[in-house]
Amino acid sequence: MSLTPLHRSVHRPRGWRVALGLLALLGVTSTAQAAEVAIACGGGGDGDYCPTAARAWAAQSGNSVKVVTTPNATTEKLALFQQLLNSHSQDVDVMMVDIAWPGLLAPHLLDLGEAVSPAEREAFFPALIEANTVDGRLVALPWYTDAGLLYYRQDLLDKYQRPVPQTWQEMTDTAASIQQAERAAGADEMWGFVFQGRAYEGLTCNALEWIAGYDGGRIVEPDGTVTLDTPQATAALTEAASWIGTIAPRGVLNYTEEEARGVFQSGNAVFMRNWPYVWSLAQREGSRVRGKIGVAPLPHGPDADSVSTLGGWNFAVSRYTDTPEAAISLARYMTSAEVQRRHALNNGMNPTRIALYDDAEVVAANPTMSVLRPVLMNAVARPSAVTGEAYARVSNAIFNGVHAVLSGRTQPAAALADLDQTLTRLKRRQW
Ligand code: GLC
């Protein structure tokens, strides 16, 4: 009679079991089964450190990982995750999720609260833990944090004796005059300013910076009020629309972060709005702007303060995973001090653990961190917490409305009044 595996283990001779126990004690073998964990991450310009770190976890833990690459643009990443999670797919166990998504994805994510003690949570910036906590459930652990920055060509500002602009108006003037002078000197491809103008999440981030940086509010306030139909928001969008085809190429209407970086890094833009990840890539050997750039807080409107949108990425575990223990272990490893430290040193990503901001080596390797620290402290969150599950529709309405203004299809005041109404209608039904 052939024995099933269960019978076999029941009938193992005693000595064999003792030997196995000893081996386990010595750490030679593990009682837990090795698991294969699928992690979805990368696909952007973040230097793709995620796969390297995930493989290091596999080697250390005796498990294996499968890396599922995701699309470049945030909105496309979200669509993919929503599709997988809505179908309760087991194709991904761990996901790199945007700081704007916890409210949208929470019902599909495991509560990591039990695995991560309150004391451990205190090592992270409280605002990031809060952003990842939905109805008291900790649904993701913060990996790196982001805020919008102004990149500039120091060499060109020096050449034309211009200061780093403080206001959008100054930025526009400086960009226009350097663009003109450089073109006259033969740099035909030179543009004044590049940013993320495609109709996707990145444009919502830019629009929030323009509007809030004109003292025009946060689009949807933390108490749920919609504040788009204002003279400040109109002034902000009027200024932004004036850039298209003048200091910014029309193609910017289809740019995500990576297209903007491409133009700036090949030496063809004076200014760029982008996230911190660009710094280390633009300063690498082979970059045409290496040693020629600087970074500053974003410009602002008249009599207003500079505002950056809070961005960043986190690791969440799918509720539908069949390897929850290993998946949680991987999410914890990815957000550990050790991995964040290497991510900061190798790729210039900003840690979410407070102590790393006092780590001399990390700070020395990341000049953006000194500019970024106050920027991060004051960064403004997108209205994702207050709009909860409606956030994807809210952001879609914002980026489509703003895109129409930038493209010249609608006038700023009319578009904003319309958008205000659309969001107010959504509010009545959804938040
Ligand atoms: C960056 C930010 C993220 C944001 C995205 C928009 O990746 O970290 O929060 O949603 O850009 O494109």
Tell me what the structure shows:
The chain has helices at 5-10, 14-25, 49-61, 74-86, 102-105, 118-121, 126-131, 154-159, 168-184, 201-212, 231-243, 257-265, 277-282, 324-334, 337-347, 360-365, 368-377, 384-387, 391-406, 412-430, and strands spanning 36-41, 64-69, 94-98, 133-134, 137-138, 141-147, 149-153, 191-194, 269-274, 293-296, 310-317, 350-351. The protein contains 20 helices and 12 strands. The protein has 2 domains: 2-139 and 311-377, Periplasmic binding protein-like II (D-Maltodextrin-Binding Protein, domain 2, 3-Layer(aba) Sandwich), CATH 3.40.190; 149-309 and 384-430, D-Maltodextrin-Binding Protein, domain 2, CATH 3.40.190. Strand 1, helix 3 (49-61) and strand 2 (64-69) form a beta-alpha-beta unit. 46% of the residues lie in helices and 13% in strands. A 6-stranded mixed beta sheet has the order 2-1-3-11-6-12. It has a 4-stranded mixed beta sheet with strand order 8-9-7-10. A two-stranded antiparallel sheet has the order 4-5. It is an alpha/beta fold and 431 residues long. The structure holds alpha-D-glucopyranose. Alpha-D-glucopyranose binds at residues 74, 98-100, 146, 201-202, 205, 257, 275, 311-313. The site of alpha-D-glucopyranose has 13 residues, from helix 10 and strand 11. Belongs to the bacterial solute-binding protein 1 family. Pfam families: SBP_bac_1. This is ABC transporter substrate-binding protein. One of its GO terms (cellular component) is periplasmic space.
